[in-house]
Each structure stands twice: as structure tokens, then as C-alpha cells.
Write a structure and sequence with these properties.
This protein has 289 residues and is α+β, with helices and mostly antiparallel strands. It contains nine helices and eight strands. The chain has a five-stranded antiparallel β-sheet. It has a three-stranded antiparallel β-sheet with strand order 6-8-7, with helices on one face.
């Protein structure tokens, strides 16, 4: 017997079994008999399931939109719900057509277990992203510091979070690394404290140094009086200089500009008032042989 006829003979029982499941065991002689076949019953069940699935997805999507869920979380929830709903539709429809769905469910379970073992790191980042979206330690636009660096949050994804540094570099950090480490959110209060230190010579008058530093702080409009007014005090004694610290509060948006401005203004004020900033000197003594 030729090979193609042998394959046809081997496949014939399977084809007959499939057709028997779709048409039924009873002979189809009338239209009423045809409407009672598993083929028509399955098609009607599939149509009804698709309509119900569409209705459920629409209602759920509107409900989630009204409670103002984070956009990334909204997309994830909608995608997961679509997968679950349409998977149930396929299983119900396959059962209505007369197919054995238990083997299909077992196959899906085995594939899911194998995927979970092969993608442990990915799943850890995935669940880390879910926890970040639920707990909300920061939002898009916040300036944060994490274990991998600091910057402005550009995007919170399901697997990683994108940060933009002050020099416009995009840093992609895995969500599991962020959630398992320390998170510092500088934008939550809208304010940030700055401490600037200056080394002044021992010969300079303490009260005069403090008054000059306070005058410079009060003259800058980016220096805030709340939650506490700025101050200048001695914080350390060094080998060849006294360390003065200027402490003040500013808005997050003024964090970098106010630092640069005050560093320049302080130097100008010190020079104008005869306040010396010491620096290391090297004295060389020439000794004749």
C-alpha cells in the first residue's frame, strides 16, 4: 500500500471521531435534528459567551476608569482580565462542541508551571511592579533615590522603572531591585533641605561671618522661611579652618539653581567683607650645603 494511503487510513478514525463529536451520534434528517447537534449548540454557546465577555470587559473597564487607577495598573488589569475571560470562553465553547477539555486544562497547567520556573527573575520584577503600583511609594514625575541611583521617575512599568537623571540620562531599574531596597522620595513634600559648608579661617570674627552668611541667605528669593528659617552656625573645627554650615529649605524645582547661586554669592560676600577662606600652603626652605 502506498505511503499516502497508509497515512489516510491511519488518520481516518480520528477524523471520523471528530466529525462524530461535532454532528452527534444520531443521524441528521431534519432541520430540527441539525439544530440539536453539538456543532450548532457549540456555535450558539460561543456566540453567547463572546457577547457576555464583551459586556463584562466593557463594564469592568468603565468601573476601573471611574476610580482613577494608575494608568499602568489599568492597562495591566485590563490585559489580565481579557486573557482570563477569553480563556474561559474557549474552554466553555470547546466543551459545548463536544471536545474533552480536561486534557487542554492539564496542558495549560504544565506549560504555566514550566514558564514560572524558567522566568523566576522576570516574575519577581513583575510582582515588584504590581506592588509598586499598589503601594505607590512614588508617582511619575517624582524625584526619588533608589539603590541604583536617583532621578525623576519617567515611567513605572510592570517589569522595570525608568528614571531620568539630572544630566538627562535614562536609567532603567528592575522593579524587584527598587521594591526590595530603600526608596527616598524627595517630591512627596515638595520641599528639600540643603546644607552648604564653608571653611573660614580662625582669624575671622565669628559673629561677622554668621551675619554675612545670613544676609546672603535672606537676599535669595529661592530660600524659604518655612518649615524653619535659614541659619548659619559653626559645625566643626578643622586643622586650619573653622567649618560653618548654612542650612535652609527650598522647593524641589529650585534645588540645583539655589545651590549654585549661593556658592557664588557667598564667595563674593566673603571677599567684600574681608573674610578669608584658607587653603593649603606649601613652604619651601632652601638650605645651603
Amino acid at each position: 500500500m502506498p505511503l499516502n494511503k497508509t497515512l489516510e487510513a491511519a488518520a481516518l478514525p480520528e477524523v471520523q471521531e471528530t466529525l462524530s463529536n461535532l454532528v452527534g451520534d444520531q443521524p441528521v434528517r431534519t432541520l430540527e435534528d441539525f439544530l440539536k447537534t453539538p456543532l450548532v449548540h457549540g456555535a450558539l454557546t460561543l456566540l453567547v459567551c463572546l457577547l457576555v465577555a464583551k459586556l463584562v470587559l466593557t463594564i469592568t473597564d468603565r468601573a476601573v476608569s471611574r476610580i482613577k487607577v494608575e494608568q499602568t495598573m489599568h492597562k495591566f488589569f485590563r490585559s489580565v482580565l481579557r486573557v482570563v475571560v477569553y480563556t474561559l470562553v474557549v474552554l466553555v465553547a470547546a466543551d459545548s462542541f463536544g471536545f474533552n477539555v480536561s486534557s487542554l486544562v492539564a496542558l495549560v497547567s504544565v506549560c504555566g508551571a514550566a514558564f514560572a520556573l524558567a522566568a523566576q527573575n522576570t516574575l519577581a520584577n513583575f510582582f515588584g511592579g504590581i506592588l509598586l503600583l499598589i503601594t505607590k511609594p512614588f508617582l511619575v514625575g517624582d524625584y526619588v533615590s533608589v539603590s541604583s541611583g536617583e532621578g525623576t521617575v519617567v515611567e513605572i512599568g510592570l517589569l522595570n522603572t525608568r528614571l531620568r537623571t539630572v544630566d538627562s540620562r535614562i536609567v532603567i531599574v528592575p522593579n524587584d531591585t527598587i521594591f526590595s531596597g530603600t526608596i527616598v522620595n524627595f517630591s512627596q513634600t515638595g520641599l528639600r533641605r540643603i546644607d552648604l559648608q564653608f571653611s573660614i579661617s580662625y582669624g575671622s570674627d565669628i559673629d561677622r561671618v554668621r551675619s554675612v552668611m545670613l544676609a546672603v541667605l535672606e537676599a535669595n528669593p529661592m530660600v524659604l522661611q518655612e518649615p524653619e528659617p535659614p541659619f548659619a552656625r559653626i559645625t566643626a573645627y578643622g586643622d586650619n579652618a573653622i567649618t560653618y554650615t548654612a542650612r535652609f529649605w527650598c522647593r524641589i524645582s529650585d534645588y540645583w539653581p539655589v545651590q549654585y547661586d549661593l556658592l557664588e554669592d557667598m564667595k563674593k560676600a566673603f571677599d567684600a567683607n574681608g573674610i578669608v577662606i584658607p587653603y593649603n600652603h606649601l613652604n619651601i626652605h632652601m638650605v645651603k650645603d
